[in-house]
Amino acid sequence: MKIIRSYKFRLYPSNSEQELINKTIGCSRFVYNQMLARKKDNSKLNTHELIKELPALTKEYPFLSEVDGCALRCAIFNLEDSFKKYSAKQGEYPRFKAKEIDNSYQTNFMRSEYKNRIYESIKLDLKNKVITLPKLKEVKIRGYRKLEKIEGRIIKATIEHIANKYYVSVCVEENKEIEKVIPNSVVGIDVGVKSLVTTSDGEYYGNPNYLKKYERKIKGLQKSLSRKERGSKNYLKTKLKLKEVYRKLQNARRKTNEEIVSKIIKSHDVIITESLNVKEMIKQGNKSLRKSILNSAMADIIRRLKYKCKWLGKEFYQVPEFYASSQICSRCGSKNKQLKDINIRKYECEKCGLIIERDLNASINIMSEGLFKNYHLN
Ligand SMILES: [Zn+2]
Fold first, then answer.
1. How many whole angstroms from 358 Cα to the centroid of ligand 1?
2. Is 113 helix (H, G, I), strand (E, B) or coil?
3. Which of 164, 172, 195, 365 gives 152 a disulfide partner, CB atoms 3.0 to 4.6 angstroms apart?
4. Which residues surround ligand 1, an ion (CB under 5 A)?
5. pLDDT < 50: residue spans in the chain
């Protein structure tokens, strides 16, 4: 089975390399915006046609020829992705990228042969701790100390510039022999706002403790940002700080979620969760910072569970989002619509007298529904 993995390294570019990276980021954004403007004029233009316009654009703006051409094509593919998400109602209509927000570029792996010489656009040398990237040549990296070699085929690299630091994520396709596990134990999982994860065997993984800390920091910085003049030196400085806090938040989230997921996967072979309503989540996320942090944590947990199950040969099912897991009594199956109100934390069944915590009830329902209908989405 083919599995896509990514490895993120800290990048240590020299001054001139930093300059080139920043330039490439700027040019990628420029191409993205130019092509978005063309799409706005003529929505029928497809990716292939946009890519065909690149040489003419480079002629008009010669600075584009100074950077990795593959990165410029990637910018167009990214635009295509944004439009795909928009048509699938998973995102908003693509917007022009502003300098302070977008600070990464992507480049695809290319291999060619010329007179028996093989050229590979991205090369990772873990022994000498360097990565070769188009136009940049060798740049120092750090990370994955124990890893000696990456198995598999490099697909692309993403180069990021965040708050004076540089990173590179290398995306690799690996071929792995996976033996199906004979299922022994099943668990239903409810993800929610009150406690992040509730399992049908009564485990609660409460609200992550990083939440309050970062929420306060982000709110403070946002407030101070709103008082500053847009584009001024102080404004950009605060924006940089804000970005750094978001990065730390992401790291904290990854650590917590990895722990939760590996604990669940260790003791169960069939994992059943809900499908999250992405559209609904986007809407809610726009309303409050806390919700948007929690939404992304929930989506991340489900993504990890799915990926790990695949990786370990375990089963992963999802029940559809319209299944009313919290309104059904997990003992007798009767329905109580009052539970739509998320503030009611206890399920009290009028029919059979069951009294049970709301999320636990939901997770048991998710487990039985998943087993009963055997939803197979992958
Ligand atoms: Zn009941």
1. 13
2. strand
3. 172
4. 329, 331-332, 349, 351-352, 354
5. 377-378
